[in-house]
Task: structure prediction
Amino acid sequence: MKKRNYLKGLRVLLAILFFVPILLFFVDFSRVLPDSAHRLLHLQLMPALLGGMVGLIVFQFLLALVFGRIYCSTICPAGVFQDIINRLFCIGKKKKKGSRRFSYHKPQNRLRYVLLAITVLTAVFGFSGLCLLLDPYSNFGRIAASLFRPVVMWGNNLLADLLMKVDNYSLFHVTISTVTVSGLIAATVALLVFIIMTIFRGRLFCNTICPVGAMLSIFSRYSFFRISFDKETCTHCGNCEHTCKAEAIDSKNLTVDTSRCVDCFNCVSSCAKGSLQYRLQLPTTSSSAQPAETNGRRAFLATGATVAASLPIASAIAGGKGEKKMNRKGRKKWPPLTPPGSISLERFKDKCTGCQICVVRCPSQVLRPTGLEYGLDYMLKPRLAYISSYCNYECTVCSDVCPTGAIKPLTVEEKTTTQVGIATFFKSRCVVNTEEKDCGACAEHCPTQAVHMVPYKGTLTIPQVNPDLCIGCGGCESICPVRPMRAIIVKPNVEHKFVERPKEEEVKEVEVDDFGF
Amino acid sequence: MKRRDFLKTSVAAGAALSLNFEKLQAALASNTVAVEQAPDLVAVMGGEPEVMLDKALEALGGIGKYIKKGQKVVIKPNIGWDRTPELAGNTNPELIKALVKKCLQAGAEKVTVFDHTCDNWQKCYETSGIAAAVKEAGGIIMPGNDEKYFKEVDIPGGVTLKKAKIHESLIEADAWINVPILKNHGGAKLSCAMKNLMGIVWDRRFFHQNDLQQCIADICTWQKKPVLNIVDAYRMMHQNGPQGKSAADVATLKSMIVSPNIVAVDTAALALFNQVKKLDMETVGHLSKGEALKLGSTDLKKINIKRIKI
Result:
């Protein structure tokens, strides 16, 4: 008999509990949510892998081994997002065209594991670009940061303008400045891929392209708890097969491919006879009943061969970095400025998955996703762009929220002494020199007095930089009025350095008892 | 103004100027005469911000002389930096709180406070204590973080700066009060009443590109001038300005200088600044440039000053 399907309810509840806060964390432009909400992101597998968080990796693998890929239906925001797309697609459609439009397909195991192997190998050889491009969480992050967030901000601006008319300033106008062309393209492509794949083939992304899904499938293949048929009661109606987003149920042969099953439990609900159940079934007893196993073995061998063949390509991609850093004029181009806490450019390149959480949480909006201007291996990773703002002196938000540890957590003390670059002054461009007029905007914004004004002609003063105090926050560069090239620019440190804290001067009591006029 | 207040003020003002009883007689006979006799500039020393504000306004003839019933009033402090009040990077929040209350008591329809900050605006508003002070006093604290809030106006009197985008609360205001804090400044040399007007415009880059000192003087020629300039010198940043590094940059002067005349108030403030650190008038270029634009006099001997020590 059909029973109430509590498992599906639980899955949906968990999915909401993970997805909604993560989504809000990305679109929350006015920083209503506390930064501590970043803990939710630390369950994401790809960041944990790149960050080398062994405990979490083991936990996720064990979870998949015991319960199957519940990760893909609850913790992974891209997985839940695909379920939402699917749900929206089904609105107003008959079951056959909507929720029961799927049918069993053979797994694309070769493609799946070759992609996984190449991703892993390139990462091992020091090129994390594929991890960045294929990671579901980071793709979701980019969609949320470059597409959803601007929409929310526009909505806010409309509302803020209305409220402003009645003197209510609880909402305020915001400028969308962190969306770059490359970020927008990456997000749009990812969104289209998710929509198209979900509509036509359900969870095809998760079961062929996604390296996280592929990795978990190796464990879920042998999961202790799994969906299985009760052959006595099954009427071969096919409802379960047509309802399976993973296209993993073969209702003719009564098999469920647990390497692809994402534990959504929709099939359990669809079965009028209650023939499908999620229960403890140790792999030894079920392997004989699964022809997919032999397939899997063959696929594994094929994968091995393909991977061996592709090794030179992988190492070539990985080795191709770090060259040709010249711009068009042939001058040596400065590398990107990496956020404080990233320790070095190379380390940052290896660990960052380009999820954009630091970009959206930065209160100064100074972090921007890059395109290809710093090479393939810096694509979509954030850099400090001192275009109209600078890195706030005592702020450590980006290092607090980073789920991979690519930006290592810093104390305020460490932050205020981490030198990400050094301000470089070009006297030939400075208005004090060219126009012989007062300016001093750079020194004004310097939090450490590394940039300070020294006597120049007549009453004029001109900036001077003390590199031992400069932390490269960009206060000076962001405010310098000279265009097109500014007169003071922060030159990146490829390896971050530490500077002394500015010396505390003694507080002197000043006695004044006359106005002086 | 109540009759009793009026009498008190008139007596105080008259007595302070001289002990000429003819003038007192005249003051009692006609309101206009009393107004003429009020000092051009009041300097107060030795009290807490709200006490000094009371004394200064009393000497000038009361807030009601400047703020009328039903007016939309804007108060423009300096909230440029993410600094606590002790570090003197921003106007004293106690002063702003007292002033907002005074304006509301004078019958202002609403009192709006804003600044176009240098550091992150939300951090500045919060750390300075000004957002909390304004809300407590019943005023409105308005953002100035987006170009959207600024409207372009002509500056016909400007030499270099001919147009500027100015915060819309000021454009709509019936009266506004300029409330700077007295500071050392790396670029402009002195940051006080005239320099504080840089916070009413959106595009400050133009100022730095095109002769900072001239543009500061130019913006002060905008036709809607502040009805009062209240210089907060309770704490004064005498070095490393305008942002400051530490408490070592701050001197506690417990002073306040108030005048409708922006050049005179800055000249007096500079003299007070010189009590702590030497700073020549000629280096503060916007003062003489302001005088040239007929914004006021740098000759303090020509004006009527009242000094109050508490």
In short: Chain A touches chain B through 46 residues (CB under 8 Å). The longest helix of chain A spans residues 136-164. Chain A has 22 helices and ten strands.
